[in-house]
Amino acid sequence: DAGITQSPRHKVTETGTPVTLRCHQTENHRYMYWYRQDPGHGLRLIHYSYGVKDTDKGEVSDGYSVSRSKTEDFLLTLESATSSQTSVYFCAISGTGSNYGYTFGSGTRLTVV
Amino acid sequence: GEDVEQSLFLSVREGDSSVINCTYTDSSSTYLYWYKQEPGAGLQLLTYIFSNMDMKQDQRLTVLLNKKDKHLSLRIADTQTGDSAIYFCAESTSGGSYIPTFGRGTSLIVHP
């Protein structure tokens, strides 16, 4: 979507290696979110940020950390990737709260072998 | 906790109407959304409705909300093959960080 980009789009990594996914926005939105999407589970929130250096955990945060050092970038790090973290990861942004809905990125397909 | 339920699949013939249903449990839900996800893409916001409304229409899309029964539906008139996608229902409340709860998605398959 215009205004939000995720990188990389695809990644294959080995078990035990660290991985960082990047979300970049040009909308100057306050809120940013990381979700994972898995068959049968829909979308599950990993972490979110409500401002620079302000982050909080979602429902599936174990094994993940995040950082937001500037408004436009929100990084998701898998400290030591496991096969259970094979998934499609989506970043989303919203303005003041999400009452008017999110804008989603195109996703990162991560495979841990 | 909050829960949003949708049926997993819906199959319709091109030109027919599609109705995708969703139920939610949080009685304090303030905003309800429908998102569309095409293959290989992120979710795209289709429409949203405030809880003080019972209907919203936007071209071929009609959203109906029954707040008493906590039931939301999305009707797509004159369904086309390009409407084939996964449709997600979501709800959020006005308190806190507005983080929505998503359903698992309904896969709509449109047959020619």
Descriptors:
heterodimer, A: 113 residues, mainly beta, 7-stranded mixed sheet, 4-stranded antiparallel sheet, globular, B: mainly beta, 6-stranded mixed sheet, 11 strands
Give the helix/strand layout:
The complex is a heterodimer of chains A (113) and B (112).
Chain A: E1 4-7, E2 10-13, E3 19-25, E4 31-38, E5 42-51, E6 54-57, E7 64-70, E8 73-78, E9 87-94, E10 103-104, E11 108-112
Parallel strand pairs in A: 2-11
Antiparallel strand pairs in A: 1-3, 3-8, 4-5, 4-9, 5-6, 7-8, 9-10, 9-11
Chain B: E1 4-6, E2 9-13, E3 18-24, E4 29-37, E5 43-50, E6 55-58, E7 61-66, E8 71-76, E9 85-93, E10 101-102, E11 106-111
Parallel strand pairs in B: 2-11
Antiparallel strand pairs in B: 1-3, 3-8, 4-5, 4-9, 6-7, 7-8, 9-10, 9-11
Describe the structure.
The complex is a heterodimer of chains A (113) and B (112). Chain A is mostly beta strands. Helices cover 0% and strands 58% of the residues of chain A. In chain A, strands 2, 4, 5, 6, 9, 10 and 11 form a seven-stranded mixed β-sheet that branches. With 112 residues, chain B is an all-beta fold. Chain B has strands at 4-6, 9-13, 18-24, 29-37, 43-50, 55-58, 61-66, 71-76, 85-93, 101-102, 106-111. In chain B, strands 2, 4, 5, 9, 10 and 11 form a six-stranded mixed β-sheet that branches. Chain B has a five-stranded antiparallel β-sheet with strand order 1-3-8-7-6, with no helix packed on it. Chain B is globular and about 45 Å long. Chain A binds chain B through residues 1, 31, 33, 40-43, 45, 48, 50, 56, 58, 90, 92, 94, 97-107, and chain B through 30-31, 33, 35, 40-45, 48, 88, 92, 94, 97-100, 102-105.
